[in-house]
Structure formats: C-alpha cells, structure tokens
Amino acid sequence: MSTRRDFMGMALGGFTAAGAIGGLYAAKRTWDPLPSVKAAGSTVIDLSEAIEGEPMTEKWRGKPIFVLKKTAEMPAHDRDVVVDGARYHVSIALCTHLGCIPAYKKADQTFFCACHGGVFDTSGTNLPGLPPPSPLEIPPFKIEGNTLVLGSEGPEYLEMKKNNLVV
Amino acid sequence: MAKIDEKAFPFSKQWLDDRLALTTVMKVLNTEYWIPKNINFLWAMGMILAATFGILLISGIFLLMYYVPTVEGAFDSVNYTIMTEVGYGWLWRHIHGIGASLVFLIIYIHMFTGIYYGSYKRGREMIWISGMLLFVLFSAEAFSGYMLPWGQMSYWAGMVITNLFSGGSLEAYGLVEWIRGDYVPGQAFLGRFFMLHVLLLPLVIIGAIVFHFATLRLPHVNNQDGEEVDFEESARLWKEGTVESRKKSEVIPFSPVFLSKDIFVMGVYFILFFYLVFYNFNFAMDPVNFDPADGLKTPAHIYPEWYFLWSYEILRPFSKDLGLIAFAIAQVIFFALPFLDRSPNVAPASKRGLFQIWFWLMLVDIIVLTFMGKLPPTDPAFAFIGLVSAVLFFVLWAALPFITMFEKKIKE
C-alpha cells in the first residue's frame, strides 16, 4: 500500500518538477534579448568627418561610442586605432564603473564621469585611485578604407584583443 | 454539514454567522485583537503605511488607464496626456509621487521605532524579517515605478542600477543584458518593469503585508517599556466591561479603540500628505526627469530618490568591487539585526546603555549618508565625510554583537 502511494507521490512530484523546470526555462527565454535586438548589429563611422582633438559621439547597439582623432601632442597608445596614419581613440562611451557617459573636458584632455567622479585619459585609460576598475572598452571594429565598421572583428581588433587591450 | 438555523432570514446576522462565522472573524481580527495601552503615536505608523499603500494603489489604478508603456509613448502619456488632458490626471500623479516618497519616510520611522524599542527579538524576529522583506519589495516597487515616465533620470537610473548586477570584476554582462532584454535599457526593459510595477510586485506586496500582520499575532505588539503583558488576564478584564476592570486592563481592542487613536495620527499625517500634494508636489518630482530619456547623454549629476541616497553613498566612496560588496551588505544587513543583537533585553534604547549610543549614531550616520549621497562627487571634503560615514556604518554593525553581549540584563 505504502509503496503504491510512494509511487504515486513520486510520479506526481516528478512530473510537477519537470513542468516547473520547463516553465522556468520558458520564463528565462522570454526575458532574453529578442533576435531583432541582437540583429541590430553594425554601425559604419566615416572617419573623414573627424576633427582633431574633438571627440565625436556615435551610436552602436544603443550605446554611445567615442571617436577621438588624436592631436600630435596627445600621447600614442597601443589601444589607438590607426587609419591612414592618423591615430584615433575609439571606445564605448560608458564608464566602466556603472555605465554613465563620461564627458570630454577639452582643457584637461580627459573624459570625466559625473556620476562617481571617474576620469579617463585620451587613450581611455582610467586614472588610478578612482572608482572605474578598467579602461573604457573598445568595441569590435573593422577598418574599411576611411571608415570604421563597428560590430565586426577586423585583424587590428583581433590583434588588440589578443594583447588584452580591448577592455 | 454544520448546524444552521433554518428560520434565519437570508443575510441576517444569524444567517451569515451560520455560513461564514462572521462574528468570530470580527472578534479575531478586530474587537478581540489586543493591543497594549502603553504605546505612543509611533505605534500608528503601521496603519499609516497600510493607508498610504491603499492610496498608492488607487491613484495607480487611475494612472494606469492612460499610461502607455512604450519608449515612444511613455514620456508623453505621463507629461502630456495625464498631466494636461486627463481631468484631474495631475491629482493622481502628484498623489502617487508624494505617496511613493512619504511611504519611505514612514517605513524608516517604523523601522527605527522597532529598533529603538527592541521590537525585533525574543519571539518577534519574524515580525522584523517580514517587515524587512516588505522594505525590499517597496524598494523594487519604487525603482520599477521610477522607470515608467521614461525621462532622463528613469533611463540613467535604470542603466546604473542594472549595471550593478554585472558584479564588478565578475563581468556578468550577460546577466545585465538578460535583465534588460537589450544591450541598453529599451522597449523590452520598459515593458518588463511596467509589468513588475503594476502587477507582480503589488501582488507580492499584498501577500507580504498579510504575512507581516500574521507574524504579529502570537508575539503581540511590543509596548513602550518592553513589558511582558499578560494578554489573557488583561483581555478578561477588558471584556468584563466595568469602568474599573477596563482601567485595570493593560490592553485595548484593535477595533475600535486602537484604530481611533490611529485615525487621529493618520489625520495629522494626511494634512502633511495633502499639503505636499497640492502645494509642494515638486518635492517628489526631479526636474531632470522632465527631459525625455536619451541614451547618448548622461545628466551632469545623477542621484537616486532621497530614500535610496544612504545606500547609494555607501557604494560611492570605494573602488568598484569593494563598493558593490559594501552596497550588497548594506542592503541585507538590517535583516540580521535580531541575531546580531545578543542582549536579551527588550527595552527602549534609553535603558540599554551603549546600545542607546549605537542607536543614535546609526540614525545620524544614515542621515549624514543621505545628505552626502545627494551632493556631486567632486568636492573632496564632502567625499571624505561620505567615506567616513560609510566606514562608520560597517563599524557600527560589526560592534553591535559585542556591545549587546556585555549589556547589563535589565530583568529576569
């Protein structure tokens, strides 16, 4: 008698658990980014419009992107994107602390985040002793002539990624 | 089948009692639910919270009828349709905004009353824990509601708070994107926070309120001196009904006696409430949120609503990982209060020696953190005060078990 009850109990419990797990999986998938969101992929940036020392803000996957054509006196860095001999700093313009947009301060030549006081130099490197734990992130890019395609990984990006320079 | 009175007139008292035990229910919930006499106006905060929640629910229902949960439509549906077109739409919005703000003021008073009088231990632990659960749920409700007007502060608060889930160096950006349903807050994010705000969280909150009431039932409400009241004897005296015996009884029934005291305090509270609604509604309206959400422009200075400022300030002065850990601990540490307080005394803080100092330091520290959290991060003097206050917050919690362990026992 008790074994038959146990069997009924286990069968009911087992099917309920399977249903619950399936339901949780469906709930998790419902919250995933939609395919249309994921597919809204690449942005093309025309670098001929860049002015030395004046960062442009572009948009890629809803995130702002800094493109700063470096002046001669701005220090060069391995994180620079070099196109036609000109050096560019390209990064996702979200502070690596909690994701606010830093503003470029022309006088100091730094990116300053007003949320918690983080500061990045013109290579996107975070200054020490402040909340951001890492430099501004470099988005996947591919150089095509005088344009930059964000969202696909060109050889220059892969090289940087190999050297752990992108984040 | 229970015995019924065949002759009872339909829906008469007897008829309802035979079917619903209505008289018994009224006794259990109202006329024979005993509250100690030895209390003050701070004991009215619970019913004030219940009333404020009711007002938030009603004003929310009216706002829901015109609010449009889309990234294109949300801002205008609030700031144009509800505010200018809908008859008295402004009234619901201002009631909802002021209510959301004041509910936290009262929650904090309610919490610190409990801490001051030791109403969280010796059988009252579940009251405290269910109350803290309500605090967390109200925080989630407030945050999700703050997203809905889809202004600049909504958007950037959504950005920053969801980023917290990346866990610092854990770099769990997959989790952040999953919570948002997008790389940045967008339609998927607004849609799900809308659902949470208007359906799931209110349902859970109502359940948690019922549970919070239930936790009071056995240990009873505490009183001003933490005395053990003989509820059975006092209830007997009250029910005896003579002037003498009621005078001798240490308790009053919840309804109508305690409620009439509550309603007086509520009256005072609602004067403040409606003063703010009609004459000072900007108190709960951040000007930055009157700019539509723009993912390409962070406001110059972002900060949460005043009731989250103290925990925000705990996050701010540290490096990212340490800040996140500090923030996470600050969110849950109050849950542990009944277990960190090692003293058996249930008494007002004024009779508990060092604990009295602990209580006032904690209260002042949280107020200082609140003020510092509102200031921009640039001023080094204020940043330093913020750091000291954040460190003090943790020092106080670490010290609590020790200062209470050696506390003199007041009574057997």
From TrEMBL, chain A:
Keywords from UniProt, A to Z, are: 2Fe-2S, Disulfide bond, Iron, Iron-sulfur, Metal-binding, Oxidoreductase
EC number, UniProt record: 1.10.2.2
Domain (Rieske) spans: 60-150
Q: Name one GO molecular function term.
A: 2 iron, 2 sulfur cluster binding
Q: Which InterPro entries match?
A: Rieske_2Fe-2S, Rieske_2Fe-2S_sf, Rieske_Fe-S_prot, TAT_signal
Short name of one Pfam family: Rieske
Give the superkingdom in one word.
Answer: Bacteria
Q: Which SUPFAM superfamilies did the record assign? A: ISP domain (SSF50022)
Enzyme class, spelled out: oxidoreductase
Protein's name according to its UniProt entry:
Ubiquinol-cytochrome C reductase iron-sulfur subunit (EC)
Question: What lineage, starting at the top, does this entry show?
Answer: Bacteria, Pseudomonadati, Campylobacterota, Epsilonproteobacteria, Campylobacterales
TrEMBL record, chain B:
Membrane topology for this entry?
A: Multi-pass membrane protein
Entry EC no(s) = 1.10.2.2
Which Pfam families is this protein grouped with? Answer: Cytochrom_B_C, Cytochrome_B
Q: Which residues form the Cytochrome b/b6 C-terminal region profile domain?
A: 244-412
Segments spanning the bilayer are 41-68, 98-119, 126-148, 193-214, 263-281, 322-341, 353-375, 381-403
* Primary location class: membrane
Which keywords, in A-to-Z order, does the entry hold? Electron transport, Heme, Iron, Membrane, Metal-binding, Oxidoreductase, Respiratory chain, Transmembrane, Transmembrane helix, Transport
According to the UniProt entry, its GO molecular function terms are: electron transfer activity; metal ion binding; oxidoreductase activity
Q: Quote the cellular component terms of the Gene Ontology held in the record.
A: membrane
Any single biological process term in GO = respiratory electron transport chain
Task: Using the record's annotation, list all stretches that form the Cytochrome b/b6 N-terminal region profile domain.
Answer: 12-225
Question: How would you classify this enzyme at the top EC level?
Answer: oxidoreductase
Compartments (UniProt record): Membrane
> What protein is this chain from?
Ubiquinol--cytochrome c reductase, cytochrome B subunit (EC)
Q: What species was this sequence derived from?
A: uncultured Sulfurovum sp
